[in-house]
Amino acid sequence: MTRKKIIVTGANGQLGMELQQLASSYPAYEFIFTTRNEMPLDDLNSISQFISKHQPQYFINCAAHTAVDKAESEKELAFKINAEAPGIIAKACKENNVQLIHVSTDYVFNGNGTSPYKETDATDPVNLYGASKLEGEKSVMQNDPDAIIIRTAWVYSAFGKNFVKTMLRLMAEKEQINVVSDQSGTPTYAADLAEAIMIIISTSESPTHHSPLTTYPGIYHFSNEGQITWYDFAVAIKELSGSACKVNPITTSQYPTPAKRPVYSVLDKSKIKNTFSIKGKDWKESLAVCIQKIKNAPK
Question: Which domains are present in the chain?
Fold first, then answer.
């Protein structure tokens, strides 16, 4: 039996690395992990050629320009990677009959909400990163109506750069740190997101649920469970890592950044749970798993 192929872009990013860790648990699939060097995302010919050469059944696009503050001054680059490239990928996937799963963000919303955002809620990004990702969603759907888009939030992992690793480093260096306490959301452990994506792919292959993913196109929300502030997140990191560093709550106005941040970005996950029988994991349980993994990593 020939194994089905999955191309994954952004192989060196947090989600790409977590999918690499997970690959051995899914022996029925052959994973092809790519970086920008192997497949430039802004070149339709190179993407089409790559897809034609490998003939995959699935394409997971984890690649993105994720530096939110940098995007404010690198507008052209952010739009090229986050908006144009996904459209090019979607076009190539549609032409080659490949199921596309594209990763997006909570930053497509303005953050003025008070209850968890549903997939159907109006989008209105407050920064350039969010605007570029929203354009990416639109161009994906325009070029490939069968695509699946997963919006996620506050992503962290034992790999790459993220809030958890920054906090662990600062807590080791300083006696006290200040963290914003007036922005609410839910963290997402990239390993849980990687697992959810693989559940979605394997669901379409299971004998009991045997309908192709083209039956479930559109946008889905995924994060861990619960609602916290960045300050709560930092306090939990301090507790779980056994740090003695003091964490002080501050307001957004006391910590100005080049890019405006949404005040509230909790996502409603009912659709992804109901459609694909995905179980939500509590944010703190997943955080404990990740911190343990970081602690156990070879120095």
Answer: 4-158+188-225+266-281 (3.40.50.720)
